[in-house]
């Protein structure tokens, strides 16, 4: 009887554990400031690291939850998430997480999880480039599994239409509106030509180029992106003006048919999302509020807490 009572209590307490604001206040009071300092310095040297860190957090959270699985290195028998075509060659900023982790291990050994470091880093990237500030609950624990094939099964594809995007985000607990709101992240950073070249040369049987792309943008992109496979695959900014600033110009660009990916422009083409695009294009402040709330939600997807998982010593390797 006593045994089963204790058992019951411990199961309840571990399953009830949830993220908390200021989780490290007692155990590592400088944790959030150390992340902010490291990210600020890194972004000052290379502004492209801000979008890179935001994207890395998104890719972490949609695959096995925000558990730092995206940071794990492959082993000889297990290709990790980093090996997936959705990540390899385009995900970057790992060194920022590693430097931050090294600083934190020195301050408070084995206390701050890699998943939390990445979530804080994405939050700081958003503040530095968008002036959007939000309090972020923490206490995520690091997972021990990272598997390349899981990435494409869980992340949305750049050729998805609005319906498929909505389904993908719904499977992670997001509304259609939150999906459109988070897509505003494509107002900064870059994409490789390979992610949108399908729109430029042989779109379908009747149209050489995607008719939902502004023809002058398509022409400019063709001059940068060769049509044949295996050629060079440079990167192009999502938005030309102020490519390092996170704001609602993404939505204003969509209204000019200047979305880069199929998954961007479809948000205006589709009846079910066009209205949200129009509102976000018009009301910057409202979009920033909704973006902040959606980021907090993104950071809570499938998290490990309490005594689940571990706190890695090195973000690239399980303990
Ligand atoms: C809606 C579904 C989404 C799709 C299909 C998608 C797809 C992509 C693709 C294909 C790229 C370019 C990769 C490359 O070729 O280099 C990219 C870049 C990026 N994505 Fe997304 N994404 C989506 C949602 C999001 C969300 C929710 C966020 C964050 C909140 C995000 C943040 C970014 C950022 C910041 C970049 C630029 C990365 C850099 O400059 O290094 N994306 N995305
Ligand atoms: C090609 O794409 C356009 C625009 O999406 C569409 O209207 C047209 O029906 C498509 N043609 C074929 C043959 O699929």
From TrEMBL:
Gene3D superfamilies associated with the record: 1.10.520.10, Peroxidase, domain 2
Q: What is the lineage of its organism?
A: Eukaryota, Viridiplantae, Streptophyta, Embryophyta, Tracheophyta
What UniProt keywords are attached to this protein's entry?
Answer: Calcium, Disulfide bond, Glycoprotein, Heme, Hydrogen peroxide, Iron, Metal-binding, Oxidoreductase, Peroxidase, Secreted, Signal
Q: One matching Pfam family, short form? A: peroxidase
Q: Which residues form the signal peptide?
A: 1-17
Record-annotated site: Transition state stabilizer:
55
- Residue sites binding Ca(2+) 2 per the record: 247
Residues that bind heme b: 186
Q: Where is the active site?
A: 59
Q: Cross-referenced PANTHER family, in alphabetical order? A: PEROXIDASE, PTHR31517
Q: Where is the Plant heme peroxidase family profile domain?
A: 18-319
CDD domains referenced in this protein's UniProt entry, alphabetically: secretory_peroxidase
SS bond partners: 28-108, 61-66, 114-315, 193-225
Name where it's found.
Secreted
Q: What is its EC number?
A: 1.11.1.7
The entry's substrate-binding residues are 156
What is the free-text note on the cofactor?
Binds 1 heme b (iron(II)-protoporphyrin IX) group per subunit. Binds 2 calcium ions per subunit.
Cofactor requirements of the protein: heme b; Ca(2+)
Task: Give the UniProt family note.
Answer: Belongs to the peroxidase family. Classical plant (class III) peroxidase subfamily.
Which GO cellular component does the record give, naming just one?
A: extracellular region
Main function: Removal of H(2)O(2), oxidation of toxic reductants, biosynthesis and degradation of lignin, suberization, auxin catabolism, response to environmental stresses such as wounding, pathogen attack and oxidative stress.
One GO molecular-function annotation for this sequence?
lactoperoxidase activity
For the biological process aspect of GO, one term held by this record is: hydrogen peroxide catabolic process
Q: What is this protein called?
A: Peroxidase
Record-linked InterPro entries: Haem_peroxidase, Haem_peroxidase_sf, Peroxidase_pln, Peroxidases_AS, Peroxidases_heam-ligand_BS, Secretory_peroxidase
Q: Does the keyword Glycoprotein apply?
A: yes
| Residues engaged in binding Ca(2+) 1 | 60, 63, 65, 67, 69, 81
Q: Which organism is it from?
A: Acorus gramineus (Dwarf sweet flag)
